[in-house]
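Example record

One chain of 107 residues, shown exactly as stored in the release files.
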Amino acid sequence: MKPYNIIIKPVTDEAGNYFSARVLEFDGCIAAGETKEEAHDNIYEVLEGFIEDMIEKGEEIPEPIGDEHFSGNLRVRLPKSLHKSLSRAAKLEEVSLNQYIVHKLSK
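Predicted structure tokens for this chain:
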């Protein structure tokens, strides 16, 4: 399997305490588990199903978001690793990179 970006975070809500996992490259590819390890295992099962369905439908499978996607070039030069980190954080917040940076800088 390709190195997709898996995000796992703890959740506390009306359902209790658990871990939520998602794949950044696939909208709606989400799983949960009582432990981080269980969420990790479950997300790969869901991901396999997503990829199988996309292949059956003839849809293009997204490539993993990797370092090569981050030029580090905004209006200000910054390290690629920081650009990647900011981009992932913005995706998690479901806002544009520009909105995320402006929000963080305005604090």
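Notes: The CA atoms of residues 87 and 98 lie 9 Å apart.
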